[in-house]
Amino acid sequence: MDRQWFRDRLHALGRTQAELARQLDLDASAVTRLLKGERQLKGAEAARLAALLECGVDEVLRAAGAAAGPADGFVARPVAVPQPAELPRNLPVFGAAVGGPDGAFEMNGEVHEFLERPPALQGVRNAYAVYVTGDSMRPMFQPGWVVHVNPNRPLTAGCGVVVQVRPADGEAVPLCYIKEFVRHAAGRLVVRQYNPAGDIEWPAERVLAVHRIVGVAEM
User: Fold this and answer.
1) Which of 4, 17, 99, 189 has the greatest number of beta carbons closer than 10 A?
2) Do residues 133 and 103 touch, judged by C-beta distance below 8 A?
3) How do residues 157-171 score in pLDDT, each as one tens digit?
4) Which residues of the chain have pLDDT under 50?
5) pTM above 0.90?
6) Coil, helix or strand for 175?
7) CA–CA gap between residue 9 and residue 59 (Å, rounded)
8) Chain centroid to CA 70: how far?
9) Residue 109: other Cβ atoms inside 10 A
10) d(CA 105, CA 133)
11) 126 alpha carbon, distance to own chain's centre
12) What are the start-end ranges of the H helices in 89-159?
């Protein structure tokens, strides 16, 4: 863990370690352990730090030592990965159009096209994909990327999700959002976005579906 890099970055942006703690939803002691290398940085946390520090996720991971090899003697072995041309082109991409603030979009249920189905979704009949619109989740999800969705996977804090919400008064159709899952609490769904940064809540009765994002493709 390059603690000095984080300190220099915070100083250059006029930010504090307390802001870093709030960005990660951690207390001060947990942040101290993180910067000392006593606690591993999670992937979702790296994306949040990149948003706070106005840099790429890869820079955060390098500073956190994520690229360093393990010290337990483990040697990685090459794994045969299918080439895109070898993958079945049967993953449906649902049509979407920008429909409102905070990256909201209408998912009309019609199949816009079919893309290569990644290995993680082989055999998942109800899997689908959606194009990312807007920059509310940058840098975790970039505009124009395709997110791969597995509706069967359980949700965990920090994972990406596609949320479908019942229409409110004055809205004609349900709206969908690509966000970061935070928690279910007191009959409400809480998710997070990065631009502008903040949490969004919906009462459970308005939430039609919450599906986990399991991968992305840069198009």
Assistant:
1) 189
2) yes
3) 999 999 999 877 766
4) 67-76, 99
5) no
6) strand
7) 11
8) 26
9) 9
10) 8
11) 20
12) none
CATH of region 84-217? 2.10.109.10
- What is the per-residue pLDDT for 99? 45
3-state secondary structure of 206: helix
Q: Give residue 91's pLDDT.
A: 93
Burial of 154 (0-12, 13-18, 19+ CB in 10 A): exposed
Domain edges within the chain: 3-63, 84-217
Question: For residue 76, what pLDDT is reported?
Answer: 45
pLDDT at 190: 96
Give the Cβ contact number of residue 122 at 10 Å: 12
Would you tell me which CATH number, out of the four given (2.40.30.110, 3.40.120.10, 1.10.260.40, 1.10.10.10), belongs to the domain 3-63?
Answer: 1.10.260.40
Pairing of strands 197-203, 207-217: unpaired
pLDDT at 98: 55
Residues 6+ apart with CB under 8 A from 86: none
Helices (H), the chain: 3-13, 17-24, 28-35, 43-53, 57-63
Q: Write down the pLDDT at residue 68.
A: 41
Query: Which amino acid makes up residue 172?
Result: A
- d(Cα 115, Cα 122) in Å, to the nearest integer? 13
- What was the pLDDT predicted at 66? 54
Rounded Cα gap, residues 171 and 15, in angstroms = 39
196 preceded by a cis bond (ω within 30 of 0) = yes
